[in-house]
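Sorry to interrupt, but I need a hand with the structure work. Please put the record directly below this note.
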Amino acid sequence: MGATEIVFVFVIYLLFFGAKGIPSLAKTIGKATYQFREARSDIQREIMSSAKDITDSAKEVRNEIENAAQLAQRQAKKAQDTLEKSVKPTPAEPTEPEVKEPINPLTPSDSISSSGVKKEDPISETPESGKDDQPST
């Protein structure tokens, strides 16, 4: 309520009840103000208490999760250590390299000279009869 509204209500009250009712009006306004402030404080306390309870519960849950995670890590480490102790690595045995047969690119009709160069068949190198003898037109 604004100041103008309070003055307007006060004037209306004076008209209906007169000057004798002013002390009882002030007493009633005082009690209402006190009760309003008390209720507001109670609500604030309740909200703060609920927030604190929620915060405490969240901290407890976080601590429980952290403890469970640490326990799981310890158990995993213990299991890993046990597994490493039970499985001893064996040294790799050397294996003989696999011997592959060389691939012969030559066909049975081909022959190789003593220098390792493939000899061509002299018959296949001769030009076909008549093709090279004639001039191109």
